[in-house]
Amino acid sequence: MFNAAAHDAGKAAEGPAPLLSVVMPIYNEQEALPLTVERLRPILDDLGIGYEVVGVDDGSTDATPAIMQKVRQDWPQFRIVRFARNSGHQAALTAGIHRAFGDYVVSIDADLQDPPEKIPEMLSLARERNLDVVYGVRGDRGTDTAFKRRTAGAYYWLMRKLVGKKMPNQAGDFRLLSRAAVNALKAMPEHQPVYRLLVPWLGFPSGEVVYVREERVAGSTHYPLSKMVRLALDSITNFSAAPLRLATWLGMLSFVLCVALGIYTAVEYVRGETVPGWSSLFVGMLFLGAVQLICIGLLGEYVGRIYSAAQARPAYFVGYDSAEETDDGTRRVSAYAM
Question: Does residue 209 sit in helix, strand or coil?
């Protein structure tokens, strides 16, 4: 479970809670991180408010941890949360959101595909209209490949069918949350949260800021096709029982087809026109076998999630949080907590 004592101790040590927290999941971003910091810091400094940047190191294996330490030396508002091992983007996002101190929390990736210049606009919109959520909506994805645009379009179409139109189209993990929204998310018993669906489900007052998606500033993507498929599968199975109903409908369709084929076979037998052959039998076996495997696979996905939830194994372990250090560099509390 999340270590509330560690969180409160760190908050007390930092003084009054900042107005804004910027949560940044980071994994092997040694090339992009310095450019991101160079662009992000002036924007936040110009706001004239108290803020923190929570960089969540998701078990990086390159020079990223060393770069983060150097950034913290030069930038006091930069806070480091480091995982004991790689746990995934959504886990890093969860840790950052749960540990952020700000009244408003903005999540943004470290590759500059989502422009940090939109953060002041998000904050201003939330404060002026008393909104709990402000989504960053991609109005133009021209920098993405045609394949990425089509698959992303299919993903958002399917998710909107499951969640409803309250889920903004083309809204990723670049968003602003109020403290009320953050507290609601922390109270959710989700083992593998998918925030693209969970945040709209809350139904809090929301707005949108439209932006043009940029090219990655450096390095290569950490979201290949396999992870995109995994995200889609997690989104569907975590948030809807529709696949189970699909298995039921496939079973009913198979039954109807089998009954129809049985009637056809009986009629042909009575007419004396039955011809021994393997084609119809072969096709029928393939069809029924495929349907059964699909149904078993869908059931397995849900059973696997039930098993994972029953184990109650933490989704991540935080090995270090710079907010939990004393002035002499010693640890105030144990940071090994979820």
Answer: strand
Collapsed DSSP state (helix, strand, coil) of residue 161: helix
Instruction: Determine the pLDDT at residue 92.
Output: 92
Torsion angle defined by CA atoms of residues 222, 225, 228 and 232, in that order, rounded to the nearest 10 degrees? -170
| Nearest in space to 42 (alpha carbons), one of 136, 117, 125 | 117
Global pTM reads 0.70
Could you give the CA distance from residue 20 to residue 22 in angstroms, rounded to a whole number? 7
Does 3.40.630.30 match the CATH number of domain 4-221+314-324? no
Beta strands 133-140 and 206-212: pairing type?
parallel
Q: Is 15 left (phi over 0), alpha (psi -120 to 50) or beta?
A: left
Hey, what are 161's tokens?
Answer: 């069918």
pLDDT in tens, 53-100: 999 999 999 999 999 999 999 999 999 999 988 888 888 999 999 999
Residue 176 backbone dihedrals phi, psi, to 5 degrees:
-115, 140
Radius of gyration of the chain (CA): 25
Phi-psi region at 130: left, alpha or beta (left = phi > 0; alpha = psi -120 to 50): left
Contact 314, 88 (CB under 8 A): no
Residue 292's contacts (CB-CB under 8 Å, 6 or more residues apart) are none
Length of the chain: 338
Q: Closest Cα to residue 77, out of 27, 133, 15, 129?
A: 15
Residue type, 47: L
